[in-house]
Write a structure and sequence with these properties.
Radius of gyration: 22 Å
Number of strands: 6
Shape: elongated
Strand content: 15-25%
Strand order of the largest sheet: 1-2-3-4
Helix content: 25-40%
Distance between the termini: 24 Å
Oligomer: single chain
Structural class: alpha+beta
Order of helices and strands: EEEHHHHEHEE
Number of helices: 5
Number of domains: 2
């Protein structure tokens, strides 16, 4: 599932229950990588859509990041002839770190975890006493010593 926001694209992987946030350069590459466009074509699209010079190595970095997040099918491998360039070298060459592609991933909670809340059962309980017996095991609900339940999933 893909949701476009103002400055980023959110991709939710329904199979792995992972959410991925793509910054504009990564989003442009993700949107246009269809297996038919070359890296040079994607660099030109990146340049035209972002209005700044783009480098084929920026595209390769985006493809590497998207592949690592398992958002590409089939998986993409950089050919040995393309070589590897560090982010630091790209920043020196491109000059603007904001043009580098970034894919941020996080594990989404299961529906049970998302629905779980702390059940306040802390009246006259000491600090650290569990206050919920219905929350999943990885949820941390504990009494704060003042009658309040704190924490959650």
């Amino acid at each position: 599932m893909v949701t476009e926001l103002m400055d980023e694209v959110l991709v939710y992987d329904l199979e792995r229950h992972r959410a991925h946030c793509l910054n504009p350069p990564a989003a442009v590459v993700f949107k246009h990588c269809d297996g038919k466009r070359s890296v040079e074509d994607l660099a030109r699209l990146l340049e035209s859509e972002l209005g700044a010079p783009a480098d084929p190595d920026c595209v390769w970095l985006a493809l590497d990041r998207l592949d690592k997040a398992r958002l590409l099918s089939p998986r993409v491998r950089r050919p040995p002839a393309a070589g590897r360039v560090s982010r630091r070298d790209l920043i020196r060459r491109v000059g603007i770190a904001a043009l580098l592609p970034v894919v941020t991933s996080l594990l989404a909670p299961t529906p049970a975890q998302a629905a779980a809340t702390c059940v306040a059962n802390c009246a006259s309980q000491p600090f650290g006493t569990p206050c919920s017996s219905t929350a999943p095991a990885n949820c941390l609900c504990a009494c704060d010593g003042s009658g309040n339940c704190i924490g959650g999933c």
